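Could you join me in thinking about how sequence relates to backbone shape in a protein? We need material for that, and I hope you will provide a protein of your own picking. Once you have written the record down, we can walk along the chain together:

…
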Amino acid sequence: MLKGIPEILSPELLKVLCEMGHSDRLVIADGNFPVESMGKNAITIRCDGHGVPEILDAILKLFPLDTYVEHPVNLMEVMPGDNVETPIWDTYKEIVAKYDERGDKAVGNIERFAFYEEAKTAYCIISTSEKALYANIMLQKGVVINN
């Protein structure tokens, strides 16, 4: 065990977060996301029994967001015609604001099929048991700066 590391982060996930470099991307996927087919070229990690918000919060305690892009955090847009509410996005924006001074300005949206294409190039995709729809989130890693 280590001090200061959120216990929800498995040793495998910690290793992957450490391996990732500047601009590498990570997807935290909801329970409906096709993790294995999208992640054929990525490391896939299962976090069964957990939701996206708790994993997002734990990761952002350790993971700097990229300061060289406008939106280092991206959400999958709702498809036109889908009558889906996305209150979980507000939760994500609150969590991001705790760790990044840009707050919700760091969060953008990507059209659903474009999100899939971007996910195929991610370094890692985390599978969760999140039940909310359109609850997928993509993070782009920044640089760790020692102060």
